[in-house]
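Sample log: Putative regulatory protein Fnod_1678.
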Amino acid sequence: MFGLINIGFGNVIAGDRVIAIVNPESAPLKRLKEDAKEEGKLIDATYGRKTRSILITDSNHIILSAIQPETIAQRFIESMVEIEKQLEKIRKG
C-alpha cells in the first residue's frame, strides 16, 4: 500500500505498481531496457541525465530514473509510514 512516489524532476509513479527498483549497470538489465524500448514500454524520466535506477512495474513497463535506487526505496518507506499514520488516525476516529 503505497501512494505516489517521486522519482525525480517532478515525476511521480503509483507505488503499488512497482515490483522492483534495480541498478541499471548489469548486462541483463541493459537488455531489458532495450527490449522495453522496442516494445514501446520504456518510460524515460531521466531528463537526459544518467540512468541511475530502473523501476519495473507489474505491467512490464520499464521506468528509467536519474535518482539512486536507495533514494527511491527510502521514498517508498516514507510513503508507507505516512499512509500508516493516516490509517491510524482513521481507526482512532
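Observation: Helices lie at 27-39, 69-92.
Observation: Residues 4-92 form one domain.
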